[in-house]
Amino acid sequence: MINKVFKSTRPATLVVSILSTFLGIIIAYRQGYVFTYHMWDLWRIFLVIAAAVLLQAGMNMMNNYFEDDIQEESDGLRNLNFLGRTRSHLEILIFKVGITFFAITALISIYLAFYTGFQLLIIELIGIFAAYAYAGEPINYKKYRLGSVVSFIMMGPLMAYASFFVFSKSFSLQPIVYSFTLGLFIPAILLANELRDYFDDKDRGVLTLTVRIGYEKGKIIYYSLIAFAYINTTILVILKYLPEISIIVLSTIPLINEIVRCIKSDKRKLVPITAMIYLFSSIELFLVLILTK
């Protein structure tokens, strides 16, 4: 049971929240806001990362709960009424754990906002609302084909800026602009998930973006997101908004061959490999930003 609840957090995708959070923290470090008070900064770094991971895990759990899994229904596991839906014991537990994660995130936000300012609390509450509404009723913007867009905004610029603000207590465009470097991997990971599950979702009538527009068009968008992630980084280097050595992130492009292989023969690995390329590229960029301070 615990293992299934853990899997419902979709661990492979949690790298997104960690990287977005680190981006904001690193930018704050470059501007001289981090490690002025060492132990207090380490405590804040821990809380920021914990809140980000819990927020994304809660979002993934809401997605699991509100999905209409025909297998669960056909196996007779859905025999309990909960919040107007017929669900299984496991699904109800997943929902409750997800809500608990949102509550802990809210408590962390209130605690940090006490030291940082009310603006942080507003940002975090918007993030919690968006995380629930990704698949949660009555909003469920995922069914309106807005999942990738809103998730990018929430897990990219919004999360990076919130992490930066915890330390700086001031506005800056840098965390927002920098999140557009490799941030397009975020919706790419979601598209990878849709491509992997395309035929199952189509048979079950789950109207993801890829099901609505077709597999081939979904694949084109997926490849385009990855391509523009690299292009955005290159543009920022050309405009001298990033150090020239940041171009090193292009060294991960050969890994795209593994993506092509996965799409052709092993779609189950598509999400992990996309997340891995995002991880490697981000680590390279982070090291550049730290070392060129």
Largest sheet: 2 strands, antiparallel
- Across the major sheet, the strand order is 1-2
**Average pLDDT metric:** 88
Give the helix level as a range of percent: over 70%
Spell the H/E element sequence: HHHHEEHHHHHHHHHH
Topology, number of strands? 2
Nearest-angstrom radius of gyration? 19 Å
Description:
With 293 residues, the chain is an all-alpha fold. The protein has helices at 2-7, 15-30, 38-66, 70-74, 89-116, 118-133, 147-168, 174-182, 185-196, 198-204, 209-213, 215-238, 256-265, 270-291; strands at 80-82, 85-87. It has a two-stranded antiparallel ribbon. Helix 2 runs antiparallel to helix 3 and helix 5 (89-116) packs antiparallel against helix 6. The N and C termini lie far apart (46 Å). The mean pLDDT is 88.
Short recap of the structure:
This protein has 293 residues and is an all-alpha fold.
Descriptors for this entry?
293 residues; mainly alpha; two-stranded antiparallel sheet; globular
Which secondary structure elements does this structure contain, and how are they paired or packed?
Blueprint: H1 2-7, H2 15-30, H3 38-66, H4 70-74, E1 80-82, E2 85-87, H5 89-116, H6 118-133, H7 147-168, H8 174-182, H9 185-196, H10 198-204, H11 209-213, H12 215-238, H13 256-265, H14 270-291
Antiparallel strand pairs: 1-2
Helix pairs in contact: 2-3, 2-7, 2-8, 2-14, 3-5, 3-6, 3-7, 5-6, 6-7, 7-8, 7-9, 8-12, 9-12, 9-14, 13-14
